[in-house]
Amino acid sequence: MIEGHKELGRKFATLEQIADQQMERIVKNQLKHVQAAAKLLCPVSQGELRNSIRSSVQRVDDRVVGTVYTNKAYAPYVEFGTGPKGEADHAGISPAVSPAYSQSPWWIHESQIDKETAERYHWFYLDTPNGRFYQCTGQPAQPFMYPALKDNEERIVRNMQNHIARELRKESK
Length: 173
Fold this sequence. Notes:
By secondary structure, the protein is of the alpha+beta class. Helix content is about 50%, strand content about 15%. It has helices spanning about 5-40, 50, 75-80, 85-90, 115-120, 145-150, 155-170; strands spanning about 55-60, 65-70, 105-110, 125-130, 130-135. Strand 1 and strand 2 form a beta hairpin. Helix 1 (about 5-40) packs antiparallel against helix 7. The two termini are about 25 Å apart. The model has no long low-confidence stretch (mean pLDDT about 90).
């Protein structure tokens, strides 16, 4: 029989509990780096998309899951691009995603977009008795979410390891 094995077992259980308690706070702190990077990388017209980027942390079973997200329905179109232009230029998007791009142009009625935006893109248009219609052939990808995570991945892992090691050293004295 090894002397002190019960005490050592209790100490390990305490260290595991401390690491588990700290994990939500650690993940939340590191998500702020990703959220800030996503906001910096996000293309801005009116600022609506940038201002919608949020983060959350939740426990799922025995894991802590951190998420940086936006609730804007058009965010994937910005991130991955659209149409032939998106397919031709989607560098920087996640390699785990394979978007399907429409190859046909589509028409947007003037009631669905403001004139200033349509003119900025120099879209072809037709004036009809039902109003003006702009022809759209897509937009290149403007990734901001995936690069925000990928560019900070090593830093986040290192920060998390250092924080956990610090907490465990404090408790193991």
